[in-house]
Amino acid sequence: MERAVQALKDCILRGEPCTADFTRHMEEVDRSLFVRHRDPRDQGEGEALRKLDERFQSTQAAIYASVEWRAAEPPISQIEWP
Questions:
Q1: How confident is the model at residue 68 (pLDDT cuts 50, 70, 90)?
Q2: CA 64 to the chain's CA centroid
Q3: CA-CA distance, 32 to 13, in Å (whole number)?
């Protein structure tokens, strides 16, 4: 996750498009959660992994939505609050 966050910061702070590197890191996190979620040590870990997976999925969806939005370069009128 650390590498994915760094790649995302590079995208946002440097104004660069998100790279394949970022996508690869996010996929690695997703795969790791999937594998770990299949075999939790106990019920507590299973519940924690379920919550983490939910949060990761929603965060990932929001990140990709913002990347797509940014790539579309909306006019300033869409960015400003009414």
A1: confident
A2: 7
A3: 27
- How far apart, in whole angstroms, are the C-alpha atoms of residue 16 and residue 19? 8
Q: Give the CA count within 13 Å in the CB-facing half-sphere of 53.
A: 16
Residue type at 62 in one-letter notation: A
Three-state SS for 35-81 is HHHHCCCCHHHHHHHHHHHHHHHHHHHHHHHHHHHHHCCCCHHHHCC
Q: Amino acid identity of 38? A: R
Q: In whole angstroms, give the CA distance from residue 27 to residue 29.
A: 5
Distances (CA, A) of 35 to 13, 15, 43, 46, 70: 32, 34, 16, 12, 32
What pLDDT, on a 0 to 100 scale, did the predictor assign at position 47? 93
Entry pTM: 0.63
